[in-house]
Prior knowledge:
The complex is a heterodimer. Chain A is mainly beta.
Amino acid sequence: DAVMTQSPLSLPVTLGQPASISCRSSQSLVYTDGNTYLNWFQQRPGQSPRRLIYKVSNRDSGVPDRFTGSGSGTDFTLEISRVEAEDIAVYYCMQGTHWPLTFGGGTKLEIK
Amino acid sequence: QLQLQESGPGLVKPSETLSLICSVSGASIISTGSYWGWVRQPPGKGLEWVGSVYYNGNNHYSPSLISRATISLDTSKNQFSLRLTSVTAADTAVYYCARLEGCTGINCYWGFDSWGQGSLVTVSS
C-alpha cells in the first residue's frame, strides 16, 4: 500500500501569513499514463471533506487561487499564500494512483 | 448538480451488520467514469477509504475490510449501499458516501469530487 505521511500534524498560523503542508508517499504516485493522482482535501469543523486540488496542482471549481498544490513523484506540498479565517480546517492528502486508495493522517491548521 | 445523501440506523449492536444507503441525484450511478463508495472517519480521527465500485463490476475494497464489506449498486433507484458484517466498537465512525472520479475518455482524475453529509454509526450494546 502507498502510505501517505503528512507533516506537520498541527500548524499554528497567523491570519494573513502563508502556510505550507507536506505530504510524502511511500512509493511513486506517477501512474503508467504519466499522470500523478495526488489530491488535497479540506475538512472544516463539522463538515464533509471538500476536494481542493486534483492531479497535484489543479484547483477544483470555486477554490480560491491562494491555494496552490505542487510536487512530484513522492513529495507534495499544499501552500496557502495568505491564510484567512475560513481556511481553518484539517487538510488531507490522498493518492488515487494505486489501489487501495490511501489518505494522509491530516494536518490541522489553527490560529496562532 | 450532483448530490449524495446517506441514510441508515445510527446504532448497531456488536457482532451485527451495519447497513447504509446512499441516494444519488444529479447523475446516474451507471455513468462512465464514476465509481461509488464509502469513506469513514472515527470520532476525532482521520479519513479511511472503505471501498469503491463501478457499474461494470470493477470493485475495490480496503484490504483491512474486504472480508466484511460489500458495496452494492441499485440502478433502479439510483442508489448504492454498504453492508459491513460482524461490527465491533472499532467500526464506530461517520460514514461518508462519495463519488470517485475515474476516467472519462482520455481524462482521468482519481479523486473524490462529491461527498454526502455523513452518517454517524455507533456500535454499542
